[in-house]
Amino acid sequence: MARTARTARTARTIENTAESLQGELDRLELQKRSLERELAAVADHLDTVRRAVHALESVMTGQADPPPAAQPTATPRPAPTASTQQPPPREKTPRGTTGKAAVEGPERRVSGARAPSRAAHREDRTYGRLTEQILAHLAQAGDTDVRARDVAAALGRATDSGSINAIRSTLDRLVGASRIRRTGRGLYRSLPS
């Protein structure tokens, strides 16, 4: 009799442990998917920043090479890991050239004339499109306070934490540049016209 009672208790304990572990497994799988999405967003942002840095360096040194990500490769590259992801080496400007002189040196001249200005290329760029979309959405919202999550949903972007943090970061930059205002914790509004 004592043996059957002990066996029943052991069975209940095993059953409770299995249920607890199944709940933990479900929670961890959900957390894994969320972290994978956030990692993908960070990797995309890292690639964008690398291309921007390369473009700025090439403008400063007068090179017209495409960014490393756009150059064709003969062999397929393995998937990047944390240990293999390193920023490209920085090119140094010649000693004695600083500021405007380094940017507008002889290599920036095209057949005796200056290279096209930034304003001429402004229509061709895609950087800043998110900023403009956010400003347009806030202008459309008028005197209504909006949250980063609402902006992400209105722009048709993903609503995971990585995407919302990208929107929030852009909103904070716009507040810092006095293009919009923060009306409360996590609340943003366009400036009055």
Please, could you describe this protein's structure?
The chain has 193 residues and is mostly helical. It is built from six helices and four strands, in the order ααββααααββ. The chain has helices spanning 2-61, 99-103, 118-121, 129-141, 148-154, 161-176, and strands at residues 109-110, 113-114, 180-184, 187-190. It has a two-stranded antiparallel ribbon with strand order 1-2. It has a two-stranded antiparallel ribbon with strand order 3-4. Helix 5 packs across helix 6. The longest helix has 60 residues, at 2-61. The radius of gyration is 27 Å and the shape is elongated. The N and C termini lie far apart (84 Å). Residues 70-78, 96-114 and 119-126 have low confidence and may be disordered.
Concise account of the structure shown:
The chain is mainly alpha-helical and 193 residues long. It is built from 6 helices and 4 strands.
Question: Helices and strands: which structural class?
Answer: mainly alpha
Q: Please outline the major beta sheet.
A: 2 strands, antiparallel
Q: Measure the end-to-end span.
A: 84 Å
Mean pLDDT: 75
User: For the CA atoms, what is the radius of gyration?
Assistant: 27 Å
> How do the strands line up in the largest sheet?
1-2
Kindly state the number of beta strands: 4
